[in-house]
Design brief:
By secondary structure, the protein is of the alpha+beta class. It folds into 2 domains: about 45 residues; about 170 residues. About 25% of the residues lie in helices and about 25% in strands. The protein is built from 4 helices and 9 strands. The strands form 2 sheets. Strands 5-4-6-7-8 form a 5-stranded antiparallel beta sheet, with helices on one face.
Length: about 240
């Protein structure tokens, strides 16, 4: 039975091939060469001219945000940690204020002051919290920032050793609730305000402590990052 079935299938295939060849010969005699050429060209165009849908390239947003900030707000990004080779980053309205190769970037506390009405940088600096007594200079820097300013901060390498009580109180005035928890080589980022309050539901700071059993990089914790939009303020 199996042999007969196979034989019938083979015969059917031969018959189909003969019929197809015969039909092709008949059409070649009946139809003019121009008609056959047009038919072949039409089939080729149908195969080639298939509509292609191409997704547009994603538009890059300010400070590498996933989506654009709404009107009346500013984009920001603050990052700290990830090892000694990873410099801190403070970006505001797509301007990299603090980062590798940028003036005012260094070990300790990195600070950028931004006019909350215009979104323009007022001042930026860093204060070494490992060598020297620089907390007093940092307090003076913060106190001289005009009212109506955003203040963005990020640690680099070590930001706690020389941080005084006076300096912690000054940072708390800007809205920080975590500064007293900072430890040796903690990664810390903060977005505060002077003279007004940021939205209550806005994430304003993050901290990641150095832990030998958990550190992703030798001696340093993983990166922490804040990014989003801050509401523009009316000029006082």
């Amino acid at each position: 039975m199996l042999s007969l079935t196979a034989l019938l299938r083979g015969l059917s295939l031969v018959v189909c091939c003969v019929l197809a060849w015969y039909l092709g010969q008949v059409l070649a005699v009946i139809l003019p060469p121009q008609a056959i050429s047009l038919a072949v060209s039409g089939i080729h165009r149908m195969a080639v001219d298939v509509p292609r849908v191409t997704a547009p390239a994603p538009r890059r947003q300010k400070c590498s945000l996933w989506s654009a900030c709404p009107p009346g707000s500013f984009a920001f990004q603050v990052a700290s940690g990830g090892g000694i080779q990873m410099f801190p980053k403070i970006c505001f309205e797509d301007e990299i204020i603090t980062g590798k190769g940028k003036d005012g970037t260094g070990r300790g506390m990195n600070i950028a002051a931004i006019d909350a009405a215009s979104g323009k940088r007022i001042a930026s600096s860093h204060f070494d919290m490992w060598l020297g007594e620089n907390s007093g200079a940092m307090v003076k820097f913060i106190q001289e920032i005009p009212t109506g300013s955003f203040i963005l901060m990020a640690t680099f390498d070590e930001g706690s050793t020389k941080l005084t009580e006076e300096a912690k109180k000054e940072i708390e005035k800007l809205g920080s609730t975590e500064i007293r928890n900072i430890g040796f080589r903690s990664s810390w980022v903060f977005v505060g305000a002077k003279g007004f309050s940021l939205p209550a539901d806005m994430k304003k700071e993050k901290m990641n402590h150095s832990d030998k059993s958990k550190n992703r990089y030798a001696g340093w914790p993983a990166e922490v990052q804040l990014q989003g939009c801050v509401p523009q303020q009316r000029r006082l």
